[in-house]
Amino acid sequence: MIAVTNNPAEPFANSNSRRPFAAKYAHRAWGIALAVVGGLVFLGGFSALAPARPGSAASTPIPAFVIGLILVALAVYLLRGRGVNPAIAQRAAAAAQRQAALASESMSQAQAALAAAGAGGAALVAYRNLEETAKRWHPQDAQAQLGEALTSIGFDPAIISASPRYGVVAATAGGGVELFRDWVVFGQEAHDVDLTTRAQVFTDGSIQVTSAVVTNKNGKSRVVNQQHDMRTAQLQLTSATWSMSVPISPDQASEARRLVEQLATHIDSLKPQGATTADIRSMVDTILNSTGQPPAEKLKQLSNLRFERLLTDEEFESAKIRILGIQ
Hints:
three-stranded antiparallel sheet, four-stranded antiparallel sheet, PH-domain like, about 50% helix, alpha+beta, elongated, 10 helices
């Protein structure tokens, strides 16, 4: 008796008896292949009915018909099988387990790289790698996997989003140099911007125009001007601890210079500002009014200010008289 199932794709899934004239397990690929070959052999038998050449006797098609029918019957036998061969199912399960292990290992490596990077441009590159890894191995729930990985290492994406991106300069070899306020990124290479960072754009060459005489099929000649772009451009960034030189498209030179100027303006803002007159007067008053320092120590501090050209000789002598006059 055949049991009834709610799954129309597997009407005999709950039956313990094998279907009549059916293999134990379905062999779809082999069944289709045998059906195609058997059909071709069967059809080929009809060609045997016609004589090979005029006047000759036709060959018998019976062997072809028999072989074709046997192959088709075997195909039906294989296609009528139910369920999946346990060996195939085990291989599929093992492959799925290997895939899951590889996904877990890839996520762990990307996660560890982000944890080691900490902050700065290196953290941005590591974060992007982790994000791409999550999309590759978990396309259905990539964001959930990414969020779980970030939580486990305590990484806040705000660390890398705090630095605005000024723009991107396209490289001739592909990709682009991303200039951020606090770092520079080119592919997997990232460097942090500091007070020693300098950026320049170099250009060379020109567009050369040559003339050539072209004759058409009617024998008429005309002069054609051809342009040859011989220009080259390069974006160069240097710092006390790193350097980067990237060939860029000459058409990107103007945009690169704009971004370089924007980066230079930010670097200038990082430099310590010079002391104002009010700051110097406040420092001198603090030294003079300090009751816990001996006169010799006060004179030493004033001398340092004069050495740094923050005090003139007259201002130093005036302060010196005040210190000695107190005693």
